[in-house]
Amino acid sequence: MNNFTFEETNLLCIYNTGSRTGLIDALTEMRAELSPEEAELRKLTDSALEKLQAMSDAEFAELELYPDFDE
To answer: One Pfam annotation, family name (predicted)?
Structure first.
């Protein structure tokens, strides 16, 4: 289950803590600090969080969370 967009994957790479729950916590904390002007980032974060919460830890472990600078 890797239906993350390119932008979501990059966001996950930036905030990856090594565990699904840790990443969810980190993204939730970051989201709380966003200003109203950062609506696009809030929407991206919400989408990534929704997908992370729907997956299992085993599915998360299969993700390759390395930034793809070529795309």
So the answer is: TTRAP
Contacts of 44 (CB under 8 A, 6+ apart): 7, 8, 11
Distance CA(13)–CA(7), nearest Å, equals 10
Q: How far is CA 50 from the centre of its chain?
A: 9
Dist. CA 7–CA 42, nearest whole Å? 12
The residues spanned by each domain of the chain are: 6-55
Tokens, residue 62: 């299969």
From first CA to last CA, the distance across the chain in angstroms is 20
pTM, rounded to two decimals: 0.88
Kindly give the residue spans of alpha helices, DSSP state H, lying in the chain.
Answer: 6-15, 20-32, 39-54, 57-61
